[in-house]
């Protein structure tokens, strides 16, 4: 990594901030509740890339396949008609899982693998993509942004990047 290239470590900062603010606290609470209520606690990481968020339309993420906090809400409560057929399928899966959990205490959906309850520290859990995946160790989700950033980068909607916006500067052409 070039020491002068701050943008190379932006994904690391995103992971650290996201972990401290959101993921780590959630998984710790899931672990505590699972000890108190065995077989009744379900953990997930939403990682499905859908249409741009209505909260941040056109936001120039620095790397592809970015999923932001709260992005799952556009599938549970569609606020516009921007869901294509694949996105609509994901929305149906999620609504079925959430509805089943509200009614029976167990999240289930047609043609979806069983979602196991948390039974040990950090797992198992569901990774909500299409189709959903069962994973075993939630700690692996804590480096999500870094792993995605290692893939090929593509230009965002505009030439500005998160870093440009953060530093309030004009993008380089």
Number of helices: 5
State Rg.
18 Å
Helix-residue proportion: 25-40%
End-to-end Cα distance: 21 Å
Report on this structure.
With 173 residues, the chain is mainly α. The chain has one domain (6-166). The protein contains five helices and three strands. Strands 1-2-3 form a three-stranded mixed sheet, with no helix packed on it. A hairpin with a 4-residue loop joins β2 (125-128) and β3. The model is unreliable at 153-159 (pLDDT under 50).
Task: Name a few traits of the molecule.
173 residues, mainly alpha, three-stranded mixed sheet, 5 helices, 3 strands, 6% strand, carboxylesterase activity, carboxylesterase, hydrolase
How does the SSE layout of this entry go?
Layout: H1 10-36, E1 44-46, H2 73-76, H3 85-104, E2 125-128, E3 133-135, H4 144-149, H5 162-166
Parallel strand pairs: 1-2
Antiparallel strand pairs: 2-3
Organism: Anopheles gambiae
Family: Belongs to the type-B carboxylesterase/lipase family.
Domain Carboxylesterase type B: 3-135
